[in-house]
Amino acid sequence: MTSQTQDRARLLELIRELAVVRGRVTLSSGQEADYYIDLRRITLHHEAAPLVGRVMLALLDEAGIGAEAVGGLTMGADPVGTAMLHEAGRQGRALDAFVVRKAQKSYGMGRQVEGPAVQGRPVVVLEDTSTTGGSALTAVEGVRAAGGDVRAVAVIVDRDTGAAERIEAEAGVRYLYAFGKDEIGLD
């Protein structure tokens, strides 16, 4: 078993163990579900965060997506981008991270996209998980307004609730995910 296969297997195990919460919940999209995938329990976990970085970098590599920076709408995407930034650095690769605010600031420099500039650079928009694709689309819009060349949207877990189709149709970019809900056992 390769280290990449081991990384995926261990991350999946941790997601099943730590992130899946069963019970009726209202999602950020307003939709209701019988389970919640709390990926902050993974992306902010001492063992899982480095695995997130390795698995997500490998996902982009396997898809042939080159990026100079990764990030997304603040909160869900922040630790994913940070994990990827640190893993890329460990591998001797240059990869910046950025944060997208829901709206442009009305003070300071008035930016919506924070961190190293994305203008003219190939970037990937991240999210921990997506239901409708709304957060990722908000991030894509903000990054494009800042001059970034969005190559793809990548998430850790796809809930299989239409986000992929919506993002590909509305943003015109590929939608990648490390794990589907079937792999997590949420069929």
UniProtKB/TrEMBL annotation:
InterPro entries: OPRT (IPR023031), Or_phspho_trans_dom (IPR004467), PRTase-like (IPR029057), PRTase_dom (IPR000836)
Reaction equation(s) it catalyzes: orotidine 5'-phosphate + diphosphate = orotate + 5-phospho-alpha-D-ribose 1-diphosphate
EC code: 2.4.2.10
Cofactor: Mg(2+)
Keywords associated with the record: Glycosyltransferase, Magnesium, Pyrimidine biosynthesis, Transferase
Pathway recorded for this protein: Pyrimidine metabolism; UMP biosynthesis via de novo pathway; UMP from orotate: step 1/2
GO molecular function annotation: orotate phosphoribosyltransferase activity
CDD domains per record: PRTases_typeI
Residues annotated as binding 5-phospho-alpha-D-ribose 1-diphosphate: 101-102, 105, 127-135
Top-rank lineage group of the source organism: Bacteria
Binding positions for orotate per the UniProt entry: 131, 159
Family, per entry: Belongs to the purine/pyrimidine phosphoribosyltransferase family. PyrE subfamily.
Its biological purpose: Catalyzes the transfer of a ribosyl phosphate group from 5-phosphoribose 1-diphosphate to orotate, leading to the formation of orotidine monophosphate (OMP).
Subunit structure: Homodimer.
Protein name stated in the entry: Orotate phosphoribosyltransferase
Protein source organism: Citricoccus nitrophenolicus
Gene name, Swiss-Prot/TrEMBL: pyrE
